Amino acid sequence: MNGPSTQAGTLREPRKLPVLVVLHQENSSAGRVGQMLVGKGYPLDIRRPALGDPLPETLAGHSGAVIFGGPMSANDPEPYIRRETDWIGVPLKEDKPFLGICLGAQMMVRHLGGTVEAHKDGLAEIGWYPLRTTEHGRLLMPHWPQMVYHFHREGFSLPHGAQRLAEGDAYPNQAIRYGQNAWGVQFHAELTRAMMQRWVVRGEHRFIMPNAQKGSEHLEGRMIFDAPLRQWLWNFLDLVFDRQESKVAAGKPAEPQAAAPAGATRPAPGPNGR
């Protein structure tokens, strides 16, 4: 009978299947999401479709998938944008865990028949902004961050059949769930400090947009608001990939272990998201 092997009387956990990580630039990084997944025992399978990497026809050999952000728009006409958006049907059909971050969430919404568009008054979210949890969100996780980090100027609608988990002022749909295993967030919990510093330097020209914050506020806000955002991300990844709703909903946040390096990821080149 096959089962967990033992060594010195200790059960070994079964090896976890890799998580598919979809990035959009040559030097993009999975950041803290990648680090935390590796720390939880998931290998990373990193693909960059914009540079010609194929996406798998099935996720049978994966624990799930994460599509990250990028400077492009989910509305752009490039063929790889359409291919990625269409590909999201694979995890949805197979009921595999899927997480879309910023652009990735917008692609999921487009796949589900929703819309992605700029604010009617041209407002951007670039910096730290308040987050309000809905009843659906509180039932899943009692502890959400009150402030989250953004770098975008487009938002997404709430597709038919999706639940809003968290909302904001300028862009009401900040975190959503579709079915049991598909999740989308508009904000960025994945940034390491080094990534944020790069975004602030290379995205400086965007700070003049309506509602955007100055670069100094980005780094000052991190010192104040990042700790609860990091803890939330650790627990949220359990919810997405381990389906530990009872554990997370019990209000007992797991203490993050020392994060291992995120495989083959490399430093992010600059701001993600529209």
Describe this structure in words.
The protein is an alpha/beta fold and 274 residues long. It has a single domain (16-249), classed as 3-Layer(aba) Sandwich (Rossmann fold). 30% of the residues lie in helices and 19% in strands. The protein is built from 8 helices and 14 strands. An 8-stranded mixed β-sheet has the order 4-3-5-6-14-13-12-9. Strands 1-2 form a two-stranded antiparallel ribbon. A two-stranded antiparallel ribbon has the order 7-11. The longest helix has 28 residues, at 215-242. The protein is globular and about 45 Å long.
Put the structure in a nutshell.
The chain is of the alpha/beta class and 274 residues long.
In the predicted model, the low-confidence regions spanning at least 5 consecutive residues are 1-9, 257-269
Count of alpha/pi helices: 8
* Major sheet description: 8 strands, mixed
**Order of neighbouring strands in the sheet with most strands:** 4-3-5-6-14-13-12-9
Query: What's the mean pLDDT score?
Result: 88
Number of strands: 14
* Shape designation: globular
What share of the residues does DSSP label as strand, in percent? 15-25%
Q: Give the C-level CATH assignment.
A: Alpha Beta
Q: What is the CATH homology-level superfamily?
A: Class I glutamine amidotransferase (GATase) domain
Query: Secondary-structure element order, as H and E?
Result: EEEHEEHHEHEEEHEEEEEHHH
The CATH level-2 architecture is identified as 3-Layer(aba) Sandwich
* Category from helices, strands and their pairing: alpha/beta
Distance between the termini: 52 Å
Give the radius of gyration. Answer: 18 Å
Look up the CATH topology.
Rossmann fold
How many structural domains in the coordinates? Answer: 1
